[in-house]
């Protein structure tokens, strides 16, 4: 599911950016104005913290039916639901049992998905890698 979620979000964003339909929008300008904080950098993708200003983008992803069908969510989500989910994610991170990431394309730094590490065990230095269960 991770790969499907990432692929779906990336394909969707690629089409949007390829068509230049988002270039003049406030959302595009907001998250492209400054370089995001990157916590883990790989060859193809980088991971950074989730960001409040990306909530509209997270909402678009979760309402993409290709993504929606993999998450077993029976219906699209409202902005308020995604915002509440974001707030719950931030609260869960404070418990130090989960860390949520925005996935960025390494070359363009465009956000392309979300993922997380959950069930973090600091003593044994283990965690589970999973997709975001919206």
From TrEMBL:
UniProt cross-references to Gene3D superfamilies, sorted A to Z = 3.40.630.30
- List, alphabetically, the InterPro entries matched: Acyl_CoA_acyltransferase
Q: What is this protein called?
A: Uncharacterized protein
Organism, scientific name: Ktedonobacter robiniae
What taxonomic lineage is listed for the species of origin?
Answer: Bacteria, Bacillati, Chloroflexota, Ktedonobacteria, Ktedonobacterales
């Amino acid at each position: 599911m991770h790969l499907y979620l990432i692929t779906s979000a990336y394909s969707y964003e690629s089409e949007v950016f390829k068509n230049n339909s988002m270039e003049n929008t406030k959302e595009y300008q907001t998250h492209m104005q400054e370089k995001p904080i990157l916590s883990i950098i790989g060859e193809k993708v980088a991971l950074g913290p989730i960001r409040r200003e990306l909530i509209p983008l997270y909402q678009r992803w979760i309402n993409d039916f290709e993504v929606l069908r993999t998450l077993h969510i029976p219906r699209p989500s409202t902005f308020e639901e995604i915002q509440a989910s974001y707030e719950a994610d931030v609260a869960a991170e404070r418990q130090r049992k989960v860390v949520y990431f925005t996935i960025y394309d390494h070359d363009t730094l465009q956000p392309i998905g979300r993922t997380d590490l959950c069930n973090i065990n600091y003593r044994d230095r283990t965690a589970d890698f999973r997709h975001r269960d919206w």
